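User: My instructor asked us to take a sequence, write out its structure as tokens, and then describe one feature of it. I'm not sure where to start. Here is the sequence I was given:
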Amino acid sequence: MPDIKDRPEDINSQQDLLLFYLGSNQAFGINVLKMKEIIPYESLTQLPGAHPAVVGVARLRGHPLPVIDLSAAIGMHPIGANSDLSPYSIIISEFSRMLQGFLVSKVDRIISLEWKDILPPPAASGRASYITGVIQVDGRLVEILDVERVMHSVSPQDAPADHGLDLDPALMEQLSNKLVMLVDDSSLARKQISKTLDLIGLNYISATDGKDALDKLHELQEEGRSVDLIISDIEMPEVDGYSLTREIRKDESLSSVYILLHTSLSGSVSDENTQASGADAALAKFMTEELAAAVVKGLTSGK
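Assistant: Let's start with the prediction itself. The structure tokens for your sequence are:
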């Protein structure tokens, strides 16, 4: 029986990162899987009452597209306040079932990297809460943005309802002895998922990325314990969700664990990718009712 602790070092998958600037010499990055396209800046329609970081609305093939001054959203000097925005670009991004544009001063290039090369963000950074990690590229430090947190700060999502979900009391009692592991490198996502699990009345443990999850699963094994269901993000440093799933499936003692991939990358939610990794299901973030239903389904699937 393979031991999680003896996992190979090559399970980290390669990712592509778009590098760009926000009016300074500091380089930023965003996963290209979150991108749809890049368009030149165009005149925007003002949106009364919008968040200060929302600089207006563009028209993308006839459809309205909110455009966010990414610099202002993370607490830097607003680049949208400049008089001439014509040299700027708009990064069109789709995730968490939303389409939006990010105003940036310059798009640099796309690089390929290994998640294991990403380091934690410096604690001294004033914008650290918007950074998921940093990486050295050509001798300079690139800050990788937590776009989910950026979007939440501009347009907060509603919290799960306080009155709870409409679940049968007998079912909730049946699930009360189940243990769930949630895996996500975004503190915001972990908080949202935790609230949903609290509403169901489930016991759970959290992991900050795939590597942390594998370490904690190994600790549980040594204690003679196991989890019944794993909710995992896909895009994570160290070990991504697909690699985490494949590695778990190598361990016979974990073969029955139900794995739900939960991602902001809307385009990644496909049966083909899910089945190829060995996961049981995939769900786009973030709807409380849908997540709760998927968790209940997984815990009662009979695996």
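For the description part of your assignment, you could build on this observation: The longest helix spans residues 187-200. Try explaining in your own words what that tells you about the chain.
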